[in-house]
């Protein structure tokens, strides 16, 4: 598997892996009719926005690495009580 593909499939690097997979699966099931999958696209977009804002905050605060690991993300989402996206 190419390095880029491995990085995109790594849950520690890609926080929106589930949303990405769901939108791709929807496209496959609906013969690539984007209108039928708009809900999945919106969830993915909101996921990326949310984790990007977290990453920006962590950079500003000097926290390394800027993207929380999968375990840290689970703790963050657990503390919020619900999915923010």
UniProtKB/TrEMBL annotation:
Its main location: mitochondrion. GO terms for biological process: mitochondrial respiratory chain complex assembly. InterPro entries: COX23 (IPR051040), Cys_alpha_HP_mot_SF (IPR009069). GO terms for cellular component: mitochondrial intermembrane space. It comes from the Eukaryota. Belongs to the CHCHD7 family. The keyword Chloroplast does not apply. This is Coiled-coil-helix-coiled-coil-helix domain-containing protein 7. The gene is CHCHD7. PROSITE patterns: CHCH. It is found in: Mitochondrion intermembrane space. It comes from Microcebus murinus. Keywords: Disulfide bond, Mitochondrion. The keyword Transmembrane does not apply.
């Amino acid at each position: 598997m190419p390095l880029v593909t491995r990085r995109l499939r790594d849950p520690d690097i890609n926080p929106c892996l589930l949303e990405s997979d769901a939108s791709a699966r929807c496209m496959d099931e609906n013969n690539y009719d984007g209108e039928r999958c708009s809900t999945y696209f919106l969830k993915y977009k909101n996921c990326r926005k949310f984790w990007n804002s977290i990453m920006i905050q962590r950079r500003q605060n000097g926290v390394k690495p800027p993207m929380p690991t999968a375990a840290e993300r689970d703790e963050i989402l657990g503390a919020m009580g619900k999915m923010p996206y």
